Amino acid sequence: xxxxxxxxxxxxxxxxxxxxxxxxxxxxxxxxxxxxxxxxxxxxxxxxxxxxxxxxxxxxxxxxxxxxxxxxxxxxxxxxxxxxxxxxxxxxxxxxxxxxxxxxxxxxxxxxxxxxxxxxxxxxxxxxxxxxxxxxxxxxxxxxxxxxxxxxxxxxxxxxxxxxxxxxxxxxxxxxxxxxxxxxxxxxxxxxxxxxxxxxxxxxxxxxxxxxxxxxxxxxxxxxxxxxxxxxxxxxxxxxxxxxxxxxxxxxxxxxxxxxxxxxxxxxxxxxxxxxxxxxxxxxxxxxxxxxxxxxxxxxxxxxxxxxxxxxxxxxxxxxxxx
Length: 323
Prior knowledge:
Layout: H1 2-8, H2 13-33, H3 36-52, H4 56-69, H5 75-87, H6 91-104, H7 109-121, H8 125-134, H9 139-151, H10 155-166, H11 172-184, H12 188-199, H13 203-223, H14 227-242, H15 257-267, H16 271-284, H17 290-301, H18 305-319
């Protein structure tokens, strides 16, 4: 009963704190009674509470206990992998945990998708695609296949996978990758409408991907020669980031509205605003290569070859082309 009470306390951070405290008490009672199944259930709920509270130390402590209580189940190892990947930013370590989960259940969808995400974070896109394809068919699996295909330059494969993802429903992430395929193919008007649909989705999922959808909408409007619409979308992307929207799924695909403003300024011939916005973009996405690449292009146009070489060199190092 106490575990049930704990799981309902999710209306705010204070609710999560109350939930965690009650679940900890419930865990003590389950341990005293020697009920392993109940302990595993409570530990799962505790993980959710501490994740919501962003208490990584407690998450790792509880997951270690969960793994001891349920050593043959894939769930604790999958959750450990997700913490190392999403919370701690350690994809190499996360891979080990996902592999442990898959050793216990080779078709576990969460473990397969988590492993694919870790491989993606490491830039191992072909391996990620192979892993995503092993997962049972779902919207989450299909959208990741589409993203991986696009990263590998297989636009037709990405288009098929994006349509398969949308067959499960219009989720923001599926619409975004579908829009990216259209954008790549030069179908800009349809891409703009697709990104608008993604940005307009309400609820938690809508907020998570709103900054990305608006950023892509802004880039599309810029390519369509609509600078005012582009700037409005980039401003909306900034606001979404301030409200907790995702800034992207990998370091080299970061959402950087300032970069969009730099493109608009450059198109207008305003090099002063361009340089200011590009400097901000480097702060928003320090590991993305595109800002340095654009800096190199401008330096080359201005005849500053030495500065252009330095900028292109930084961009190549960020992409991993050479160390």
